[in-house]
Specification:
alpha/beta; five-stranded mixed β-sheet; 16 helices; 17 strands; 38% helix; globular
């Protein structure tokens, strides 16, 4: 397996002397020689620097440093990039005021690294294990291997917890824990963490394992009231903590629709689609005791509105209007920033905006690009062989292709991590005679999924013959895209029964 070895400065990160007799000594010595070429390593006021030496097999390849714009929208941002030199050296820099995860990416190789302000990190990238298949183009996730004896370094702590959690969820004989005892197992894990990490003063790490355990409780439907009382009520909202925000989004996902189903009278669909009025929606949400707090209520609304934008149940123009009104009315600065970010993003993908041009692997292994279909209408969909709903839609696209194939291009993009899965799917469905491409390819810096900011593994877009988005997101085959196509291409259909259209 590909291993990323890491050295952290200042010296609190680990004690190098413990490794002078280890097999890592000569790697460390070479890297420290490189680091010493930079003046005043320990005294520079620079925020975070990542310096490294990669194996020569990486020479001339680009390494990217990617962070999330925030942990609500999760929009990826490239902070820095460098071309790995012939001798393997590279350097990346990032400014951060708080601890956060970043992604180091070389083609399809990705590794998550948790960085802290005012640190200098050193990385070595050893030669790729030739026994592994790195030619399939799928994303390869690897875990950093921390060099150093100090178990208090954040990445080491996180790795320790992940091993602890994995061990807790598997019985000694290798069998998975049954549902009947899972609650006891999770509670036992929480107590074990409290004892094991009692001397740890790293608040980021404490919240990390606390909200990882919260996610486990959510996954077994521990109980809405229990989760709210224990993890949310009277707790500060941690906007800059990935695990906290992930739990928050999971807990409140679909919350507004669930709330609306319990209320009589005015429906949330009317408030959003017809009125498109933030004050009305805000007043509606205030009726729920868990949303009494202005900050929680607005953040729940932001998360749910993002989801609604990609739902065929809601008018995307109304969603954008609501987010804009929330931006005008909020007194919470972080919410103003979040809504501004969302609005900028939505405008990029709105109907009337240029459709992002991408490249992907075609069935025969060649590179396909959106420009191949210049001056043609395109119905673009993303699917996964692991997403049953998206596979059902592929069958319906096959039917649509027979009817509209001479009028527009049907283009499907598989977002599986495995090229083999994609190739097997193509082999098993020889009658699917439209372009079906594969999203990942090590030669593409940015994939179709990333360019379209796809949420999940399924999405639909209608692109007009001038290269602009006509519907974004578009209706799926099962939710009525055929009616839109009939309207565009003036296709006349015969009704065989009264009332059927």
């Amino acid at each position: 397996m590909l291993i990323i070895t890491l050295i952290c400065f200042p010296s609190k990160a680990f004690k190098i002397r413990n490794f002078l007799n280890s097999k890592h000594y000569f790697i460390i010595k070479e890297l420290l020689t490189y680091l010493s070429l930079f003046s005043c390593v320990f005294g520079i006021a620079q925020n975070v620097t990542i310096r490294g030496k990669a194996h020569t097999s990486y020479a001339k390849k680009v390494i990217q440093l990617i962070k999330l714009n925030d942990f609500v929208t999760n929009f990826p941002l490239e902070e820095d990039r460098d071309t790995i030199q012939a001798d393997g050296f590279f350097e990346l820099k990032i400014q951060t005021e708080f601890t956060q995860p970043v992604i180091l990416k070389i083609n399809n190789v990705e590794s998550k690294l948790y960085i802290q302000p005012n640190y200098i990190y050193g990385i070595t990238l050893p030669e790729v294990d030739e026994s592994l298949d790195y030619s399939n183009g799928g994303r390869l996730e690897v875990s950093p291997n921390i060099i150093g004896a100090d178990s208090l370094e954040l990445n080491n702590l996180i790795m320790d917890y992940e091993e602890l959690q994995a061990g807790a969820l598997v019985k000694s004989n290798g069998a998975f824990i049954g549902k009947g005892s899972i609650v006891q197992v999770i509670d036992s894990l929480a107590l074990q963490c409290k004892k094991r990490y009692s001397v740890i003063n790293n608040n980021y790490f404490k919240n990390y394992y606390n909200y990882k355990i919260a996610e486990l409780n959510t996954s077994i439907s521990r109980g809405e009231n229990y989760l709210y009382e224990y993890y949310i009520k009277n707790k500060p909202i941690q906007y800059t903590h990935d695990e906290y925000m992930n739990f928050f989004k999971i807990y409140f996902k679909g919350y507004i629709l669930a709330l609306a189903s319990k209320k009589k009278g005015q429906t949330v669909h009317n408030i959003i689609n017809t009125q498109a009025n933030w004050q009305s929606l805000n007043a509606f949400l205030k009726t729920d005791p868990k949303l009494n707090n202005d900050t929680i209520r607005e953040l729940v609304a932001i998360n749910n509105l993002i989801d609604f934008y990609y739902s065929s149940e809601f008018n995307p123009d109304a969603i954008e209007a609501l987010i804009g009104q929330l931006n005008d009315h909020t007194k919470i600065n972080v919410h103003k920033t979040l809504t501004q970010t969302i609005l900028v993003y939505l405008k990029k993908m709105q109907p009337g905006s240029p459709a992002p041009v991408f490249q992907a692997r075609s069935k025969d292994g060649t590179v396909g690009t959106l420009t191949n279909f210049k001056n043609r209408w395109i119905y673009l969909n993303f699917f996964s062989t692991k997403n049953e709903n998206s596979l059902k839609e592929m069958l319906k696209i096959s039917t649509l292709k027979k009817k509209y194939g001479d009028k527009l291009i049907f283009l499907s993009v598989c977002v599986d991590d495995s090229l083999k899965n994609y190739l097997n799917y193509i082999k098993q469905n020889p009658k699917f005679d439209w372009p079906i491409w594969y999203n990942y390819n090590k030669q593409f810096a940015t994939t179709a999924k990333e360019l379209y900011s796809l949420v999940g593994t399924e999405g639909y877009y209608l692109i007009n013959n001038t290269g602009y988005l006509a519907q974004s997101p578009a209706l799926s085959p099962s939710t009525g895209i055929e009616y839109k196509l009939n309207s565009i291409f003036k296709v006349k259909t015969k009704t065989t029964k009264t009332g059927i259209r």
